[in-house]
Amino acid sequence: MLTDAPEDSPATPGFEELGITGPVLKAIKDLGYETPSPIQAATIPTLLSGRDVVGQAQTGTGKTAAFALPVLERLDVSQKIPQALVLAPTRELALQVCEAFESYASKMKGVHVLPVYGGQGYGVQLSALRRGVHVIVGTPGRIMDHLAKGTLDLSELKYLVLDEADEMLKMGFAEDVEQILAQTPSEKQVALFSATMPPQIRRLAQKYLSDPEEISIKSKTATGTNITQRYLVVSYAQKVDALTRILEVENFDGMIVFVRTKNETETLAEKLRARGYSAAAINGDVAQVQRERSVNQLKDGKLDILVATDVAARGLDVERISHVINFDIPTDTESYVHRIGRTGRAGRSGDAISFITPRERYLLKHIEKATRQQPAQMELPSTEDVNTTRLNRFDDAITTALSETGRIEAFRDIVAHYVRHHDVPEGDVAAALAVVAQGDKPLLLDPANDPLSKAVEADNRPPRERGTRDAREPRTERRGRGDYTAYRIEVGRRHRVEPRQIVGALANEGGLGRDDFGVINIRPDFSTVELPANLSSAVLEKLRDTRISGRLIEIKPDRGPGARRSGPRDGDDRGDRFERRDRPERRDERPARNGDRDEKPFRKPRHKG
């Protein structure tokens, strides 16, 4: 039987109506869970009834709770033997699922959940197994090791979950998974979850599941609508400088920067640290202990940026991750979807920014098709934007220092002594102290000397402007999708406003959709946003009362140059006619050689589990 559960389905019953009771229900309510997600609403009653399940759902849809809650609801705590086994493709995902189990079981007494994965010493796992565990969450390789050593007994197993089954098979664990399944009791309940359903997954389900209920989550998009996708066309040589500009201006919390190779993770992390950012690298060669330490530091706010490869970051779920940067754009759309899925988790908003070299523009079409969303082209932050941000931080630093009254009093006497003996105005002394604190590095960038902006501007010129075609061709003659008018709103960088806040506020107040927005340009004290030229007076009236960051936006038509134009909603059709012959391939823009990749798709890794 196949059940389709659309993600945008009508209101669903609560967890209590689905059959979740007692301490498990109390725990999820304390965690803030109110309404089950579609995969949870469809799966929980089926699993509680004892039936096998094949669930097809993307990452981030809440499938962990969909299988964890029924398992905990039916767990016999008095029996300290493994009753449930969850197989996951990566160590990170195994730890994430284990943490979820522990959270949901926080109100239950005596429940023991054990993560079992490679890279961790056997001693910890063996001690826990001897003491007794109820739920084991592990990777296939290490589970196989324990079975071979006779240190893991699955003879009384009642529940088996295969999480992200398609990823396990892609990573070369098909044989291990089948051997593990063969060593479990024939009478057990099995739940298989996979983002895709290739023939190999179908065969596995037919062989090891008994009359399963098939549940498929039909989503409107392959990625969450709460993830704002943007891209910047920039050559390889300018990427590090462009990333630094974005880091200076973008208001981010935690961030993952994805690169293509293991070597690049270390190189880029080192460059970011040299520029004053708290960054660390994780890849397949980094010791597991170090990887866990870096992830925990990111969670605790002791680290702000992880530079990672695809494999190293799979399954990583950290609430602080507000931004994902594709420093190297992946050539396959599945990797792109998985990457940006590290942000915007569980209903939170997120930002994904992709660096695309001029030769990689064609990948945008693949991304749009896969995600059913159109990433918006962004502009490189200007020197003015950077200077505004630096001045804001300078102001904040002074404000913070002024709050330390005890230390201020001590230094006030020292400054007064200098003023009396050298006959120098206090303002000059304050400026001199700022020079001392700043050091040799200038506080502000020089707008007249900005080679980075010129280089990125050249990369972003439409291909026809590099040839003989007239660069002054009017936009109205270009291929477009609508007529837009630019409006001015009285919030800008000084008010720490971001494009997503503008889109969210105007969409909510004016009933606008994502396609109603064109270019958003945030300036120091105001912003401009392109909206449909045929916007009704009623909608404008609603927007006049809109507040962003507590300020009334005072929306009105922008009277600056180029305020009205016709063209694509993202403000540019650059790249629509890009031809591969426009310039020769550069050495530093070629894809990495296979030997330098972190992981080859559809191949067995060197180390399992």
Q: Let me know the largest β-sheet.
A: 8 strands, parallel
Give me the CATH fold name of the largest domain: Rossmann fold
CATH architectural group of the largest domain: 3-Layer(aba) Sandwich
The tally of structural domains comes to 4
Largest sheet strand order: 1-8-2-7-6-3-5-4
Distance from N terminus to C terminus (CA atoms, Å) equals: 33 Å
Alpha-beta content class:
alpha/beta
C-alpha Rg (nearest Å): 28 Å
Report the portion of residues in β strands: 15-25%
Low-confidence segments, given as residue ranges, are 6-10, 464-482, 562-609
Mean of the pLDDT scores? 79
Give the C-level CATH assignment of the largest domain: Alpha Beta
Topology, number of strands: 22
**What percent of the residues sit in helical stretches (DSSP H or I)?**
25-40%
Fourth-tier CATH superfamily name of the largest domain: P-loop containing nucleotide triphosphate hydrolases
Shape: globular
How many helical elements?
A: 22
Report on the structure:
The chain is an alpha/beta fold and 609 residues long. It has four domains: 215 residues, Rossmann fold; 154 residues, 3-Layer(aba) Sandwich (Rossmann fold); 54 residues, no CATH class; 87 residues, Alpha-Beta Plaits. Helix content is 38%, strand content 15%. It is built from 22 helices and 22 strands. It has an eight-stranded parallel beta sheet with strand order 1-8-2-7-6-3-5-4, sandwiched between helices. It has a seven-stranded parallel beta sheet with strand order 11-12-10-13-14-9-15. Strands 16, 17, 18, 21 and 22 form a five-stranded antiparallel beta sheet that branches. α15 links the parallel β13 and β14. α3 packs parallel to α4, α7 crosses α9 and α15 packs across α16. The C terminus is likely disordered.
